[in-house]
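stage 2 :: seqdesign
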């Protein structure tokens, strides 16, 4: 049975009481739960204790934003230190990252960009995936990223690039249906082209979300409950992803209050209904 889940950014007792009992998987982003102490990011002990309590009723996964696995210079070692702490303190089912980069020459871009799909970038990314797999004895997944700039192009299609990483490293994939909707709306691909080419047997996790349209572009801001169209796509995709273990509804912390806990809880019920069918 495929599990249903949600992301959690910590320090919200009402969210824990109201929403998390409906989740079989709880996704944690190290960047979101860390605080700055003495100039460096750390995960507070009380947050670790909270996650241990949550883990009694749900599987925990790690889903990162700040690794910058595709940066030309280096990955973010500070981020990996946070993962080290979580891995050593908690029973994590698997962990994942976005296939993008957030820094150039050590400077944070304030956003995430899609790498060029070249053989040079492929070699770099695959080498880093393999080093992460050696570092942590847990399954590692990569998620395709929304592209809000002209397509970087290269030697591979977007799906073909992911397939080649899977072939070389054996890592799994996250299929983010909202990310795909953004790229389709922004006329970067069609859903059928991407899904027909992607190695769907490598998909271990599926993400759904909803955001906004800004100046004609659909942007990857997890700020609303999912559209009916997204759930319809989920129904179509699930039979084609035989190794998927979880469907995760994602919402950023600042939008939890405006959306309301009852609406978020109901969203998990809607997702579970789709999954169980």
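stage 2 :: out
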């Amino acid at each position: 049975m495929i599990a249903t889940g949600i992301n959690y950014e910590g320090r919200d007792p009402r969210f824990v009481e109201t929403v998390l009992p409906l989740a079989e998987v709880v996704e944690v982003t190290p960047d979101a739960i860390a605080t700055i102490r003495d100039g460096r990011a750390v995960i507070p002990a009380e947050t670790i204790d909270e996650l241990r309590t949550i883990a009694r009723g749900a599987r925990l996964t790690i889903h990162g934003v700040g690794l910058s696995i595709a940066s030309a210079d280096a990955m973010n070692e500070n981020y990996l230190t946070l993962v080290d702490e979580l891995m050593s303190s908690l029973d994590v089912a698997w962990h994942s990252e976005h296939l993008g980069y957030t820094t150039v020459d050590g400077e944070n871009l304030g956003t995430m960009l899609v790498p060029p799909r070249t053989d040079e970038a492929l070699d770099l990314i695959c080498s880093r995936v393999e080093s992460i797999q050696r570092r942590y004895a847990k399954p590692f997944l990569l998620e395709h990223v929304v592209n809000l700039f002209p397509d970087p192009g290269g030697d591979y299609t977007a799906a073909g690039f992911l397939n080649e990483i899977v072939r070389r490293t054996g890592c799994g994939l996250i299929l983010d249906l909202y990310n795909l909707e953004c790229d389709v709306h922004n006329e970067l691909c069609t859903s059928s082209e991407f899904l027909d080419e992607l190695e769907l047997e490598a998909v271990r996790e599926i993400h759904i979300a909803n955001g906004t349209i800004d100046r004609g572009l659909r942007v990857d801001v997890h700020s609303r409950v999912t559209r009916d169209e997204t759930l319809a796509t989920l129904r179509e995709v699930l039979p084609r992803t035989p190794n998927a273990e979880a469907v995760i509804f994602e919402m950023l912390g600042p939008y939890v209050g405006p959306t309301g806990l009852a609406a978020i809880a109901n969203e998990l019920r809607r997702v579970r209904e789709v999954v169980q069918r």
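stage 3 :: structure notes
- Residues 3-276 form a domain with the TIM Barrel fold (CATH 3.20.20.150).
- The longest strand covers residues 92-98.
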